[in-house]
Write a structure and sequence with these properties.
The protein is mainly α and 231 residues long. It is built from eight helices and no strands. This is DUF4386 family protein.
Length: 231
């Protein structure tokens, strides 16, 4: 009896592990899709109701305050979308531990992934705080400044993104898996690095936006790949 119990137990654990990895990878796909939807919705429905760079700060602040309800909804959806990435980190950890038993790649990827999931949503929370302050009758010109928190925080998140993408690319390379994902990831890295220069100059923001979109599509593609291989 005991002779057959161990193999059966190992098989059950393997099946359960594959199922958990597949579910976790599904969060990666959900993250990518939700981020795209939220970014498109924000660009179409929210940002046009606010101010624009170069506009008079008083007028800009009043525009943002007038669209406060739209901003709050958009900020909340951005936060929820970002949190989905946390669910994907389980699959990232499991897959990288398979290719690197030392756990170095998995540790780097999970640590960077946590920062990546929190930094941009944190800006949404701070923007809500600014709206609360403006609602009390404070100088609305501060909202013009707070509107810059989002691109700055996105630029900051591009730095841990480098470690996140690089660790996954290294894991895929060690596994000899998905060469197309490795090539795309290698391209995403320098573009993300250039996008982080938005912290220095607003001229780099288009590169930042492009690298963010590319990374989200890449995460979704990797997630689909891992969902299929865990079946």
């Amino acid at each position: 009896m005991s002779t057959f119990t161990a193999p059966m137990t190992s098989t059950v654990q393997a099946v359960d592990g594959d199922r958990a990895t597949r579910i976790s990878a599904g969060f990666g796909l959900a993250y990518a899709l939700c981020q795209l939807i939220v970014m498109i919705g924000f660009s179409v429905l929210v940002l046009p109701k606010g101010g624009s760079i170069g506009e008079d700060p008083l007028h800009w602040g009043n525009d943002v305050l007038g669209a406060g309800a739209w901003y709050r909804v958009g900020n909340y959806l951005l936060i929820l979308s970002g949190m989905l990435l946390l669910g994907f980190l389980g699959a990232v950890h499991a897959r990288l531990r398979q290719t690197d038993p030392s756990g170095v790649l998995a540790t780097i990827a999970v640590g960077a992934g946590i920062l990546l999931s929190l930094l941009w949503p944190l800006a949404a929370v701070l923007h809500d705080v600014a709206l609360d302050i403006a609602d009390t009758g404070a100088d609305v010109r501060m909202l013009a400044g707070w509107d810059s928190v989002a691109p700055y925080s996105l630029a900051l998140s591009a730095l841990p993104r480098l470690f996140f993408v690089a660790a996954i690319v290294a894991g895929l390379r060690r596994a000899g898996e998905a060469p197309w994902a490795r090539r795309i990831g290698i391209v995403v890295l320098p573009v993300s690095a250039l996008g982080s220069a938005t912290l220095l100059t607003g001229a780099a923001f288009p590169v930042l936006a492009l690298s963010t979109l590319a990374t989200e599509l890449w995460i979704g593609a990797v997630a689909v790949r891992w969902m299929r291989s865990a079946r």
